[in-house]
Amino acid sequence: MIDTDKYEGHTPAPWELMRSGPLRDDAPKDLENWWVKLNEARAKTSSGEWMRNIGNSYMTEADARLIADAPLLLAEVKRLSTLLRESNRQLELMTERFGVDKLVEMIEWDKTRRGLND
Predict the structure, then answer these.
(1) Do residues 60 and 9 touch, judged by C-beta distance below 8 A?
(2) What is the pLDDT of residue 26?
(3) Got the DSSP string for 45-112?
(4) Model's pTM, two decimal places?
(5) Are the C-beta atoms of residues 13 and 41 closer than 8 Å to each other?
(6) Is the dihedral of CA 101, 107, 112, 113 positive or negative?
(7) Long-range contacts of 70-78 (CB under 8 A, 24+ apart)
(8) Which residues lie below 8 Å from residue 66, measured CB to CB, with a gap of 6+?
(9) pLDDT tens-digit series, residues 50-78
(10) Where exactly are the structural domains of the chain?
(11) Which is more confident, 13 or 46?
């Protein structure tokens, strides 16, 4: 589980992926000069602090954390997508086997058993 509280107060969309000019001659050949342009409407954070300058863009700590955690967030999206696909597959199999009416009846019975009825 990812602690999303640390992204609270991040700059709202839109963010743009920007490409700058060529890198220096001594830069590794497999790198390119990319940076993120944040929504320019926010020059200060909600608490009135000026944003930090990171690379070519001003951003809050929450923005930097969000960018740094992008690989973890992508992995979580992929994991949840797989889980959702598998859940849908199981639901389709159960619908074929029992029919919709019987499934609804089973769900209602289980909710009552667990005390989840409104």
Answers:
(1) yes
(2) 73
(3) -TTSPBPEEETTEEE-HHHHHHHHTHHHHHHHHHHHHHHHHHHHHHHHHHHHHH-HHHHHHHHHHHHH
(4) 0.61
(5) no
(6) positive
(7) 72/2, 73/2, 76/2
(8) 7, 10, 73
(9) 555 444 456 778 888 888 899 999 999 99
(10) 1-68, 82-118
(11) 13
